[in-house]
Amino acid sequence: MLYVGLEPAGDQVAACLRVEPGVEIVARRKMMTANDVPVRIATSYFRADLFGDTRLAEPEFVQPSLQSALTALGYSFGHAEEHLTARPPTAFERETLELEAGEWIVQVLRASYSAEDTPVHVLETICAANRHIFSIGQVAGYDEF
What we know:
This protein is globular. The chain has a six-stranded antiparallel beta sheet. The chain has a single domain (3-128), classed as Chorismate lyase-like (Chorismate lyase). The chain has helices at 11-17, 48-51, 66-72, 91-96; strands at 3-8, 24-34, 37-47, 77-87, 105-114, 119-128. By secondary structure, the protein is α+β, with helices and mostly antiparallel strands. It starts with a strand and ends in a 17-residue tail after the last strand.
C-alpha cells in the first residue's frame, strides 16, 4: 500500500462520486509490480460521508475484498461506468512508475454504483502504457469472444 487516508477529490473522481471537487474522500492507493518493475498504480476512492467510519478507511488490506465489505455494509452492485484516457503522466506517476521521459500512461476510471444508484466505489488504475498487458480469461465451458 502506498497510502490510505483522506484526500481532496479531484474533478474526475468528484464527478463520479457526486461530490464537489476538493471535498475530503477516502483514498486507498497501492502499486503493483511485475518482476520488480512498477506497472500499475490502483487507487480506490470512497465518499467519506458514507465510508469514513468503516473498515474501508482503515490502513489494513480489506479481507476478503472491497466488494465484500461494501456488501456487508448493505450495498449491492447496480452498474458501473469506465472512462479510458491516454495522457502524459503527472510527476507523481512518472516517479512512482519509474517512467522514462516521453512515456505515457493509460488511466482507467471505473465508477461503481449500488442498485439504488449510490456512488460506492471509484477505482482509478494508472498503467505504464508501454509495459502493461491485460490478461483475459474465458468463463469455464465457453469458447466465445
